[in-house]
Write a structure and sequence with these properties.
The protein contains 16 helices and 20 strands. The protein is α/β, with parallel strands linked by helices. A hairpin with a 5-residue loop joins strand 7 (173-176) and strand 8. It binds cytidine-5'-triphosphate.
Length: 418
Amino acid sequence: MINPVLESGEAGAPAGPGQALALAAGRRLALVVTGGVAAYKAAELARLLTRAGALVRTVLTKNAARFITPLTFEALTGQPAYLSQWTRRGLEIEHVALADWAEAAVAAPATANFLAKMAHGLADDLASTFILTASGRPVLAAPAMNSRMLAAPATKANLETLAGRGVEIISPASGPLACGETGPGRLADPEIIALSAIRALTPKDFLGRRLAVTAGSTWESWDELRYLTNRSSGLMGRELALAAWLRGGQVTLVGGPAALRPPELPGLASLTAESTRDLLSALETLAYDVLIMAAAPADFRPAAPIAGKIKKERGPTEMPLALNPDILKSLPRRPGGLRVGFAAEDRDILERAQKKLAKKDLDLVAANEAGGPENAFAAAESRVRLIFRDGRIMDLGRRPKFAAAWAILDAVAALRAA
Ligand code: CTP
């Protein structure tokens, strides 16, 4: 699935979800803001999506405009923001024109009252009329309200009705609420809402597939405070997990203790494995169809870890090492499953990667340079070369890791189809 936005490359783009957000470029989104304190966070969402290149048009309810103004959204997005169907700018019928224009609609924050209107098909203002008209498109709702209102049987029933009709409910977070209480009801993080909207617009070629993606370095204890590790940041694994999630996969990311993480997303589980042996045990019990080993597990561990803290007066001058298990070699191939490995090499990259493919029984190896001028470790970009079982080699060129992850998944999807 060639993606023109990613293919164009955005060298220098911020690492992480910033690169994933670039998928919003050129997409047309309608943001419906309803009347809760969290309305101010909708401005952050509009800004995030606009900076990613999306076109965002906003509809505010009368009560939302008590908290924030249409002008805020017009200034942030450079697109019209609407308050009422009775102040028409032209001859178009706004709710219909907007529903024709928008590729998806996002209600954020969605109050209990607005969710009730959505669930029952009420259409007594521009926001509710628009959302009813837009019902053939992906519609997302991010509730925000007091915990007791959220737990009320009426709200729960409305949320169930909406979910049953295909509206994506973005679960509210837990924490301190504007009313002074603490509990569930906070508007989900704008980044989570933005990624969910992008996912709603992304073709789901990994739907129903379970992917295990490993990321980052493992830690091998020497004493209780010190450990042996390597420079892997976990960015490539994080981007692979995020890209697979956007494409509909059911993803488990297993990362080292310091590995970069995506935000908390439904359907993207995030586990931590401290040592290489912990990573192996985690994978042994995990259910998956596709294994992508982007982690850089430590190959060695201190042979005899020491309890407490080693004092410098004791001055150990040597650290005897033991060899860790090779995770890929230790994990048997699962029936119908795919195994993708990485190869981090400082020279003879293709030749060594080909050997790893055979030795570790892989379907695909993503080879990149460790150290040297094209070092991929802890870098935002990487030059990945894909090596297939049938001997094919594909040079992806140097690109941001999210774009590299996307292309690796294209290759995995093609293998699966073959
Ligand atoms: N890998 C693994 N178990 C290890 C070390 C690495 O399964 N103990 C996986 C990595 O996640 C990667 C692949 O094997 O997908 C190749 O990793 P790499 O570090 O390039 O190779 P090693 O097998 O560790 O060999 P060497 O370090 O000697 O090149």
